[in-house]
Design brief:
about 150 residues; alpha/beta; Ribose 5-phosphate Isomerase B, Chain: A; five-stranded parallel β-sheet; about 15% strand
Length: about 150
């Protein structure tokens, strides 16, 4: 699977950890994060990954900033992106199984390395359930297109 990863300066360390983990699992990693000591605005990072996912350049994306909140807000502005901010394995699994989230947003400040690894692993292993959830995901796409709810 091709997975795009980006971060702002506060999420860089966690993003690097995730990139190494994904490479070890055999995934192709597209990594875009700031250099050591370089500042980066989270909307720029979110746009890069969101556009890669929406265009099909990447199958999924992972974004990390201080809290994960800014990344999720920015990424969800891109049509075709369903970005979910998660804090544990339960919400990671539900983001995939119920919402078909294609971008995972994480906090670089609030989560430890082991927790991040467990969250990413759960998110990658969980499949979208479809069924009644498919109808809801389609309604999200209608909202993106400006169609009345």
């Amino acid at each position: 699977m091709r997975i795009a990863i980006s971060a702002d300066h506060r999420g860089r360390g966690i993003a690097e950890q995730i990139g190494r983990m994904l490479a070890q699992l055999g995934h192709e990693v597209l990594n875009w994060w700031p250099g050591e000591g370089e500042k980066c605005d989270y909307p720029d990072a979110a746009a890069r990954v969101g556009k890669a996912v929406a265009s099909g350049e990447a199958d999924q994306g992972i974004l990390v900033c201080g809290t994960g909140i800014g990344m999720s807000i920015a990424a969800n502005k891109i049509a075709g992106v369903r970005a979910a901010l998660v804090h544990d394995e339960l919400t990671a699994g539900l983001a995939r199984s119920h919402n078909d989230a294609n971008v995972l947003c994480l906090s670089g400040d609030l989560l430890g390395e082991r927790k991040v690894s467990a969250i990413v692993e759960k998110w990658l292993k969980t499949e979208f359930e479809g069924g009644r959830h498919q109808r809801r995901v389609e309604k999200i796409a209608e909202l993106e297109r400006g169609e009345p709810g």
